[in-house]
């Protein structure tokens, strides 16, 4: 059952209840007023009747009724229980109607009765006639013909029933029409949603009407949901593409050392297999040199693979959302420790440390090991791409942030490359063979900065050098 039919049926039930209450109230009121008018007419007639009852010496009952009471509007019948005589009003005699009367009994009391005489309805009031000793000697019956009132009430009942049916039928049709118009925006929402679903096009939006009603709010909610779905779908596609490139680049980087290790292994296997077969042949120096060279190549490539796997593990932890354990750190000792370790890195240029004492009172919330790794990545990159001049580490400050600057006088980069250097496996030099590395260092550095709610600024010119500035939020007392 559609929501349109359900709304219409609920509407019909409500209208039916209202009509039933109103019709019952109207019929009950008219029924009550009609009965009251009938009783008032009978009571007014009774007030105009004069009855004098007496018992003579021979125990004969004498009942005198005022003759001017009988008329065509009411009927009167007087019963004499002593002589078993009945007196009628003129209209009863003319109509040939005899009213039934009860037998005398102590339980006989004033009472209204509805009776039918020859198929005609009457309302009768029975009034016992008693003597001073409370003995019942007669009965006065005053009635009125109620056929007109019964017909009016009967017709009223039919009018109410038929009008209620007509109103309900009209209400049903109007309910269908109104509910169709009211639900028309909802049908548009459904049709638009179906088009979006069938077309797999999350760029489409559901048209919104002018009224700011529930349908409009539903449309806004669905459109907002589509925006979030589109963003999530786009992020998922980007993540999938990045993962595919990442796996391809990692495979490419791992293939080279593995090929070297396998080639040197095959060389050693072939060399020493030949030496073993020719046991009587003396071991020559070039055999030893060749073996040591192959072993050295294997060791170097294994070390490169170890660094690559370590970098990949760090990035995988970042992608998995692993949280760093941050504590309150003084940034000055951290920079000094990184500068000390940088002295041990291979380099061909001057190494400078300047203005870090300005950061003596500064504290940050961070992880010491990861922050040192960040600084060593930037310093090692500067050494790697600087063949003359110097590399400098310095401290900066601005409101709410501590800055760590690493600058060099190396080969620099083109401005178009600055937006790409943080991508995984990207290398700014033209050939990956010019300098050692895999292009993962800056990706790790950016992840560490993001985890510390910081930012990084890069400026570079070709053949003039590059400057990295890391900004980290400070802790205020």
From TrEMBL:
Keywords from the UniProt entry: ATP-binding, Cell membrane, Kinase, Membrane, Nucleotide-binding, Phosphoprotein, Transferase, Transmembrane, Transmembrane helix, Two-component regulatory system
Main location class: membrane
Ranges of residues in domain HAMP: 180-234
GO molecular function, one term: kinase activity
InterPro entries: HAMP_dom, HATPase_C_sf, HATPase_dom, His_kinase_dom, HisK_dim/P_dom, HisK_dim/P_sf, Sig_transdc_His_kin-like_C, TCS_sensor_his_kinase
Domain of life: Bacteria
SUPFAM superfamilies in the record: ATPase domain of HSP90 chaperone/DNA topoisomerase II/histidine kinase, HAMP domain-like, Homodimeric domain of signal transducing histidine kinase
Transmembrane segments: 9-32, 156-178
Keyword Glycosyltransferase: no
The protein's name in its UniProt record: histidine kinase
Provenance organism: Paenibacillus artemisiicola
């Amino acid at each position: 059952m559609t929501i349109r039919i359900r709304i219409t049926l609920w509407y019909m039930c409500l209208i039916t209840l209202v009509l039933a209450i109103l019709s019952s109230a109207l019929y009950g009121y008219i029924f009550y007023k009609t009965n009251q008018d009938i009783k008032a007419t009978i009571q007014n007639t009774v007030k105009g009747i004069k009855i004098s009852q007496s018992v003579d010496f021979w125990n004969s009952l004498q009942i005198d009724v005022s003759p001017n009471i009988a008329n065509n509007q009411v009927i009167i019948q007087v019963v004499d229980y002593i002589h078993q005589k009945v007196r009628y009003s003129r209209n009863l005699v003319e109509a040939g109607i005899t009213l039934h009367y009860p037998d005398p009994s102590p339980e006989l009391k004033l009472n209204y009765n509805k009776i039918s005489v020859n198929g005609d309805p009457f309302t009768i009031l029975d009034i016992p006639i008693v003597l001073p000793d409370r003995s019942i000697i007669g009965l006065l019956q005053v009635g009125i013909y109620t056929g007109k009132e019964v017909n009016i009430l009967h017709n009223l009942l039919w009018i109410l029933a038929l009008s209620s049916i007509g109103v309900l039928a009209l209400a049903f049709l109007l309910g269908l029409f109104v509910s169709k118009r009211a639900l028309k925006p909802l049908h548009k929402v459904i049709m638009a949603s179906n088009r979006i679903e069938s077309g797999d096009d999350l760029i489409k939006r559901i048209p919104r009407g002018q009224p700011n009603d529930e349908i409009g709010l539903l449309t806004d909610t669905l459109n907002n949901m589509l925006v979030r779905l589109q963003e999530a779908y786009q992020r998922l596609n980007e993540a999938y593409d990045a993962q595919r490139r990442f796996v391809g680049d990692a495979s490419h980087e791992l293939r080279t050392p593995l090929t070297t290790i396998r080639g040197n292994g095959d060389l050693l296997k072939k060399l020493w297999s030949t030496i073993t077969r020719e046991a009587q042949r003396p071991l020559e120096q070039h055999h030893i040199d060749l073996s040591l060279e192959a072993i050295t190549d294997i060791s170097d490539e294994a070390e490169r693979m170890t660094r690559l796997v370590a970098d990949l593990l760090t990035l995988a932890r970042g992608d998995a959302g692993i949280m760093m354990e941050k504590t309150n750190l003084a940034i000055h000792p951290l920079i000094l420790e990184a500068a000390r370790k940088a002295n041990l890195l291979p380099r061909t240029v001057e190494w400078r440390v300047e203005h870090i004492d300005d950061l003596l009172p500064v504290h940050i919330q961070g992880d010491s090991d990861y922050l040192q790794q960040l600084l060593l990545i930037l310093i090692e990159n500067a050494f790697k791409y600087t063949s003359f001049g110097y590399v400098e580490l310095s401290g900066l400050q601005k409101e709410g942030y501590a800055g760590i600057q690493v600058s060099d006088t190396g080969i620099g980069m083109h401005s178009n490359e600055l937006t790409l250097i943080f991508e995984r496996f990207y290398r700014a030099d033209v050939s990956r063979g010019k300098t050692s590395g895999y292009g993962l260092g800056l990706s790790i550095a950016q992840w560490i900065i993001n985890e510390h709610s910081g930012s990084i600024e890069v400026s570079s010119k070709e053949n003039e050098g590059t400057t990295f500035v890391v900004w980290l939020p400070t802790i205020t007392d």
